[in-house]
Amino acid sequence: MNTRSSKESQTVRDRIVDAALDEFYGSGFHGATMRTIGNRAGCSAANVYNHFESKSELLVEILRSASDAQFTATRNALRKAGDDPARRWEVAVAAHALFAARMPRECLVANTELRYLDDVDRKRVVGSRDAQEQLFVELAQAGVGKGVFVIPRVHEAVTAVLTMCSGIPLWFRPDGPLTAQEVAEDYGRFALNLVGYRSD
Amino acid sequence: MNTRSSKESQTVRDRIVDAALDEFYGSGFHGATMRTIGNRAGCSAANVYNHFESKSELLVEILRSASDAQFTATRNALRKAGDDPARRWEVAVAAHALFAARMPRECLVANTELRYLDDVDRKRVVGSRDAQEQLFVELAQAGVGKGVFVIPRVHEAVTAVLTMCSGIPLWFRPDGPLTAQEVAEDYGRFALNLVGYRSD
């Protein structure tokens, strides 16, 4: 395959992924078909099958890359956050929340359609998600270790915080009264409060 | 209709509602059909149509009665909660969380399938949900009014707390290490922390 056709093929693949995301978001995993995905992407179902062997494969690709991108955003924010465990926790939650506000389709599909994957495919997606959760557990544990967070069960608090962030796409609108950045900062503050942190 | 046939009809109706809940939960709104719902309830699709004119009508019935039951549980808990706004907020969130832990199918279907209803049907469901949210907004405002809660935007905090509760069915297991009651109390405490309440 020469460079040009490789590029074209990449473009079609991206269009298919984007179309599948719209279809999963609008009609659900069960409502979407390879044909409706192809229609939306401007190609045939056969062409969709050239790139992805099944609808599940498309969902895995979408969920895994969204999770990876969200994880990367959080780690990038942490790189500039310094050493204070409270600040690191707040910054990480704010970055996670910001992603949710900016990538609503990916986050909603991840929340609602993951359960339709079989066990093997679900494991492929959940690995990336578990790694993210583990990062937040470590950040919370650092605060508990320093005695600045007061929570009896770290995992439970982390789950509560990540769930709260995952709900942002359900109500946040880019043209609403709050910017994505303001929402993200509020959520960082909520998370800091939730773990019983006191600044004084 | 005499008493006996009215009772039998009620039983079939209940079985259909329960079967529909399982189907919506397992296969999603788009994956479920009146036939698969009938199969699961032990009756024909025609019989399902005798009780509900459409799949949407079934989803409306399920979501509305779940929301009403959760609302009732919260108000019952508040009746015994006294006057302190912090205590009232904590008790209300704990009751809401307890319902989510004990009625996972209803809560998950409400979270994921509501978007498939058309505007009119969605309004019929959302009214009950909005009333619940309004109650929490009033409870939070009471705390802000007394100066014991410190949050810039009450609605945003209420949404965060209700979302966090709605995620409980995603991980809570009755045979897990925590009881539903323990989870509910932890969530009450999280909510109290989140709004910046300090007991001293």
UniProtKB/TrEMBL annotation, chains A, B:
PROSITE patterns recorded: HTH_TETR_2
One matching Pfam family: TetR_C_24
Lineage, uppermost ranks: Bacteria, Bacillati, Actinomycetota, Actinomycetes, Mycobacteriales
Record's keyword annotation contains DNA-binding: yes
Gene3D superfamilies (alphabetical): Homeodomain-like, Tetracycline Repressor, domain 2
SUPFAM superfamilies given in the database record: Homeodomain-like (SSF46689), Tetracyclin repressor-like, C-terminal domain (SSF48498)
UniProt keyword annotations, A-Z: DNA-binding
DNA-binding region extent: 33-52
Gene Ontology MF terms: DNA-binding transcription factor activity; transcription cis-regulatory region binding
Annotated organism of origin: Gordonia rhizosphera NBRC 16068
InterPro entries cross-referenced by the UniProt entry: Homeodomain-like_sf, HTH-type_TetR-like_transc_reg, HTH_TetR, KstR2_TetR_C, Tet_transcr_reg_TetR-rel_C_sf
Boundaries of every HTH tetR-type domain copy: 10-70
This protein's name: Putative TetR family transcriptional regulator
